[in-house]
């Protein structure tokens, strides 16, 4: 093993300690560490697993998780204490041997949306929705309605009343009137033929707000620091997406992960996180598509945990789209994968969700 010099990423890692899911998912007091590079045969064993599994880039590791590094192999982690650790010994060891224990950790659960159904016949909002955003000139996007040739686009809330028309399904907000930090806004899109509205979507949180200037500057500074590190393109985008997500910038995180997906990344964690984010903002169809991609890559690589998490996400997305039958099918597959891993706590967690859906 060897420890590299600490990275100058203190601000980022204060946020990075709270990766992937909203604050309500914070669990016990241990740190999380991101596996950013793998060379050769590297395996991991989580505290509650019965054996080792093949490691994948993008995995979040807790201090009590075990790493097994094969001959001439190496694994590189970004630790929760701002240090970069490259493990090169041909041995088995705890992550805490190279990444000291941090302050908090994240549950790897998937946040559920209250949105039900997915009506392609309405101009439902794609972005921004249920998010904080960096810019006060957001790209406004919505679903294309069959037969519609013109859309009335309106931003409302916090005293704003801005409206325009377009034939497209996206438009860049011009910046005037200025969207103010602290205010909450909502995008409303309507068509006359057929006469439908984004307001017809049921159970969705469609509001968004602007990050204040000081926080924007802080986030941008952290992004600049990340870009100065010697990370692969996938690891860099994942790190930035995690930073955005933990800052409530779900739309911005989706944008950067969509760029990664457009480049045909083979990093399963990118698709999985994208699915989680879509689920958080209530876009079940898009979440399902992302989870199907992450599941395919997890199956291809033999990543049993990735399969379990993808199936769990698919269960939630399907529950929002079509109801319980398909959801239960996916959740039971996730449960079987967790059972194969020997993670009884996750098996029970999925069982509780199955019972909840069956009520």
Automatic annotation (TrEMBL):
Keywords: TPR repeat. The keyword Cell membrane does not apply. SUPFAM superfamilies: TPR-like (SSF48452). The keyword Signal does not apply. TPR repeats lie at residues 268-301. PROSITE patterns: TPR (PS50005). InterPro entries: TPR-like_helical_dom_sf, TPR_rpt. This is Tetratricopeptide repeat protein. The lineage of its organism: Bacteria, Bacillati, Cyanobacteriota, Cyanophyceae, Oscillatoriophycideae.
């Amino acid at each position: 093993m060897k420890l590299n010099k600490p990275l100058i990423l203190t601000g980022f890692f204060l946020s990075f300690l709270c990766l992937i899911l909203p604050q309500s998912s914070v669990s016990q007091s241990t740190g999380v560490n991101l596996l950013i590079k793998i060379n050769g045969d590297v395996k991991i064993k989580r505290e509650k697993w019965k054996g080792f599994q093949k490691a994948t880039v993008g995995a979040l590791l807790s201090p009590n998780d075990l790493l097994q590094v094969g001959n001439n192999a190496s694994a590189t982690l970004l630790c929760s204490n701002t240090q970069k650790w490259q493990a090169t010994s041909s041995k088995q060891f705890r992550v805490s041997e190279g990444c000291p224990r941090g302050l908090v950790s994240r549950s790897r659960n998937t946040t559920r949306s209250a949105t039900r159904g997915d009506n392609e016949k309405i101009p439902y909002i794609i972005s921004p929705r249920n998010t904080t955003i960096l810019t006060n000139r957001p790209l406004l996007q919505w679903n294309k309605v069959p037969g519609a040739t013109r859309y009335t686009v309106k931003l409302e809330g916090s005293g704003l009343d801005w409206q325009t028309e377009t034939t497209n399904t996206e438009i860049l907000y011009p910046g005037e009137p200025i969207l103010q930090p602290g205010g909450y806004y909502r995008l409303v899109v309507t068509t006359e033929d057929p006469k439908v509205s984004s307001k017809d979507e049921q159970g969705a949180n469609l509001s968004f707000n602007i990050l204040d200037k000081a926080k924007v500057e802080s986030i941008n500074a952290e992004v600049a620091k990340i870009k100065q590190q010697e990370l692969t393109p996938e690891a860099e985008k994942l790190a930035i997406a995690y930073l955005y997500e933990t800052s409530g910038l779900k739309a911005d995180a989706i944008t950067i992960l969509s760029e990664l997906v457009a480049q045909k990344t083979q990093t399963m964690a990118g698709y999985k996180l994208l699915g989680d984010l879509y689920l958080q903002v209530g876009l079940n169809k898009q979440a399902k598509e992302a989870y199907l991609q992450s599941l395919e890559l997890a199956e291809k690589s033999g990543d049993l945990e990735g399969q379990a998490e993808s199936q769990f996400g698919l269960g939630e997305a399907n529950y929002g789209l079509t109801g319980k039958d398909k959801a239960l099918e996916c959740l039971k597959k996730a449960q079987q994968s967790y059972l194969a891993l020997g993670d009884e706590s996750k098996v029970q967690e999925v069982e509780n969700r199955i019972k909840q859906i069956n009520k």
